[in-house]
Amino acid sequence: MKDYWLAKLISSVEEGVDSRKRLQKSIYLLQQREGCPLQFSYILHYYGPYSFELAGLIDQLKGADIIDESAEPTGLSNIRYKSKIKEKGKHVLKNFEESETGKDMYGQIKPFIPNFQSLNEEDPWVLELAATIAYFYEGEWGEAQKQTATFKKLSLNDNKLKQAFALASRGLYGPKVIPRPTL
What we know:
- This protein is mainly α.
- It has a domain at about 1-120: Arc Repressor Mutant, subunit A (Orthogonal Bundle).
- The chain is about 55% helix and about 10% strand.
- The protein has nine helices and four strands.
- Strand 3 (about 65-75) and strand 4 form a beta hairpin.
- The longest helix is centred in the N-terminal third of the chain and has 15 residues, at about 20-35.
- Mean pLDDT is about 90; it is low at about 170-180.
């Protein structure tokens, strides 16, 4: 199930998802703000919410030749990995979607595709901050913003933090928030 949904979301971005970080944060926001059925478990990492399960599924899709992940240098020692659906992946998705199960699963993920595409266009730093704010959210947006500012060592007046707060607190369809499980 999750493998199909993830491949379908990646395939919805024609040019590919430009980084693992963007993929992690976009999926997190879709889950937390929209109720996307993927439901990966996340921990708080230096770069915001991170899912080992999602990272493993990306590797599985690569191993099955469904997606391609190409390394692109971004600086002296930084590399980002762009994920894109492969031709074989497009064929597998098309064939699966012709089955009754595939039609049903497509119907479940379809409402999230436009928002995933929209998140793919967000500034990566704003996306990271928005996901972190959503991670800290426990009923009070102002407190989540303060915790994020402290965690990321930013001023509450930081412009990108304000943009991220707007993205995280408004959601993409409205004010729906799925509470994160407590440990």
